[in-house]
Structures are given as structure tokens and as C-alpha cells.
């Protein structure tokens, strides 16, 4: 909700946040895959 105002003044910063969120999502996804490997 707080980012809605920042996205207007700092689109680049908002873009970076989106990329960071994607990276975190990929990291958690990879961790889940590794966890599945260890469990099996």
C-alpha cells in the first residue's frame, strides 16, 4: 500500500522492488525443490 505513492515519483525504485520480489520467489522455489530432493 505504501508503494503506491512511491511508484509515481520513483518508477525505477519500484522496478527494482519487483525484481527483488521475483528473486526471492525464485530462491524460495529453488529451496523447495532442494527440500523435496532431500526428503525423497
From TrEMBL:
Keywords from UniProt, A to Z, are: Plasmid
The source's domain of life comes to Bacteria
Query: What name does the UniProt record give this protein?
Result: Uncharacterized protein
Q: From what organism does this protein derive?
A: Crinalium epipsammum PCC 9333
Amino acid at each position: 500500500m505504501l508503494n503506491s505513492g512511491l511508484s509515481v515519483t520513483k518508477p525505477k525504485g519500484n522496478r527494482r522492488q519487483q525484481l527483488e520480489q521475483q528473486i526471492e520467489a525464485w530462491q524460495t522455489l529453488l529451496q523447495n525443490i532442494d527440500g523435496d530432493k532431500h526428503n525423497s
